[in-house]
Structures are given as C-alpha cells and as structure tokens.
Request: fold
Amino acid sequence: LKPFWLKVPQRLCRQQAESISVMQQVIVIGGGLGGLSAAHTAMEQGCKVVVIDKNAFFGGNSTKATSGINGALTKSQRALKIADSPEIFAEDTMRGGASRPDLVKVLCGESAPAVDWIVDKFGIDLSLVSRLGGHSMPRTHRGKERFPGMTITYGLMEKLEEIAEKSDVARILLKTKATKLLTDRDGNVCGCECVSSDGRVFQEHGPVVIATGGFGADFGSDSLLAKHRPDLAHLPTTNGDHCTGDGLKMTMAVGGDMVDLEWVQVHPTGLIHPDEPDAKVKFLAAEALRGVGGLLLDIEGNRFCNELGRRDYVTGMMWKNKGIVLGN
Reply:
C-alpha cells in the first residue's frame, strides 16, 4: 500500500500538557516498524508504553522490506560523498505523484534524522547505499545483512523486549487483538478494549497510537479494499494476512475521518510458487532485484520498461503486455 493519511477530529488527539505529566502509559496498537518507533519515541519522552499486536510476534510488513530504508543527507551518504539533499528527495517524491507538499516536506526532511536514529540508538548497520526505482540519487540504506527490513525491525524489537524484561516502563501484549477504541464522556479517546488469545476481554487506558498498517489483505465482508478500490480487489497481495485495516475501522467507529484511502499501490513484482500460481498471498520480489541489474522480460523475452522507473510506471507497462496464463 502507498502511505495513506489518517485524519481524526481534534478532540480525539488533543492532549493537554497537564494530562501528559500524569500519564500512566501510551498504548501502541501494532508492532511493525512504525509501532516500535512510536513506542521508543514515547519512552524517550519519559512515558511508559504498552505495545499490542494480534500476531504471535512483532514485525508486520516491515520485516518484508528487503530493499532498505530511504533517507536524504544521512551520515552514511556523507561518508560515501553522495551529494543528496531533502530537497532533491522531495523533487523525486513530487515527480512520483505525491499531491501533498506539506507531507512530502515532513517525509523527506525527517528522513535523515530517522535513518541516523536507527543507526545511533540501536547500533544497526545501514552503511550501504543504493539507487533504486524512482530515485535520482543513491539513498536506499541497508547493511551487510540480507534482509534490512527484518534487521531494522528486530533491532527495535529486541531493545523493547530488553526494557520490558528489566522494568515496568514497557509491556508487550502479543496474540492480543484490539477490538475497539474507548472514549470518555467528551468523546476523547482514552484507551482500547482487547481480546487475548484465550478469549479474555480486558481494557487498557491511556492515549492511543494506531500503527496497524493498511488493508491490502482485507478480503472480508467489510473489506476496505473492495469499498475504495474494487478494481484491485482481484489482484494477489504481498501483504501479510494481518493487514485488514483494523486500526482504520476502529477509528472510524468512534468518528474518525479518513483521507486518501483510494491510494492503493500496486507493486510490480512478486514471486510465484509453481505449485500455487493462483495463491492470493504472494512473496514480494523487492526492487533491490532490479536495483542490482535484474531485467523484466515479456512473454517473448523482450525488455519492455526501464527497470529503475517508479512502481506505477513499471506496473503500467506490465498492463500493456499480453502476459501469461498460469494455473486454473
């Protein structure tokens, strides 16, 4: 999924300074890189946290990021004398189809501090920098490990587990599904209701960070994918089966407004298991494959696009091919 943006009424997200000073905990729903980053940031500001994830382990889709993480004007780039900047990154992003300059400014301007934070705080190697699809400069960071998404996410996860084992600053609730947001008499979100793996229903109280990801694998009866992009609902997905829009649906249930849900990105490449060619969930074939020289060929063995182009461009060129029929 292409990033979407969540807009909620002000009463849901306003926190007065005096209430923060007596805050017992911050609740983070979702244990991917976004949720783990939120948890560590809250702890840096002196807050206790509880991180809730419906899966048996943290990671979400973040562990599937096999190409790396983008940043402009990072320490790694400067060490390699790569003359990149947030402004060039922003130009690439706008050229790629972004329509919100205010959000692009935050994304690109904060990219280097984010990458450097991962390196400095968690000791993760992100010293290798490559130029991948849609970028005009080398800015996709990875280390010597084969799977950078997994390496980065595990670094934050292991640190959180260490803190949880040694203190009450952090708590971890796995195999626990948040089912609804709680509100006070004024409509402010003040916690969430959860169900544990053994069916126990309980509540957690405090401000809530929604980090549950998107809805690329939402194929149920109340599917957000079918509602907002029915033209894509027939395609397979590389999202994990946990990506069912839980956080979005909980937020809408208490009056939250959504924007840009129609911006669902189609990734051009995936790996097909020969025994299950029609499987609805497939494994991502990352852009790193094309970044190191991989070629895309049509059924007749001819190149049909610039492999370093944006995802929408590569996907668009694929749609023009007659393709191949596999399976049933």
About this structure: Residues 1-22 have pLDDT under 50 and may be disordered. The chain is about 30% helix and 15% strand. The radius of gyration is 21 Å. The longest helix spans residues 148-166.
